[in-house]
Q: What sequence folds into this?
């Protein structure tokens, strides 16, 4: 009489291990993707702060929206409204990157990281070193999220078809 319980237990253990690895990669990718939400949200808050006359801002926000905000503040009236709309639109794009990144979409991580990296270069060009440094930190966590999303897609469930 053959013992069939042992192979079945091994398959179940392997399945549990695969599911645990996928779950870990998914959580890590989503943590990375949420950085886009922080970038978007704090950029909008920065815009509201700057357009209300303050010179302070969060370092995690976008440099490009800050440029629009400063220009809008100097234009007064409709210029402020236009600057705020542009800033919200750009922040909204980063919010969309966050949405798709949390859905494990690798393109979203890549596109968002490239644009955020360019934004860091913009900040370096105006010598805003604290904000550029924070961009580097955020890019590190975004890259970790991207790597986890890539790993997630490469881990096939145990019962998935091969190929």
A:
């Amino acid at each position: 009489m053959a013992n069939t319980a042992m192979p079945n237990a091994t398959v179940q253990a392997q399945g549990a291990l695969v599911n645990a690895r996928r779950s870990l990669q998914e959580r890590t990718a989503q943590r990375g993707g949420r950085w886009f939400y922080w970038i978007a949200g704090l950029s909008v808050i920065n815009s509201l702060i700057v357009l209300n006359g303050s010179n302070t801002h969060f370092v995690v926000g976008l440099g490009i929206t800050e440029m629009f905000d400063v220009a809008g503040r100097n234009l007064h009236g409709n210029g402020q409204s236009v600057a705020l709309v542009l800033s919200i639109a750009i922040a909204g794009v980063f919010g969309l990157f966050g949405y798709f990144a949390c859905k494990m979409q690798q393109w979203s991580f890549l596109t968002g990281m490239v644009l955020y990296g360019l934004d860091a270069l913009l900040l370096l060009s105006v010598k805003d070193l604290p904000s550029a440094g924070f961009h580097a930190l955020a890019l590190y966590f975004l890259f970790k999220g991207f790597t986890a999303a890539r790993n997630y897609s490469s881990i096939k469930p145990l019962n998935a078809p091969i190929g």
The chain is about 80% helix and 0% strand. The first helix runs from residue 5 to 51. Residues 43 and 62 are 6 Å apart (CA to CA).
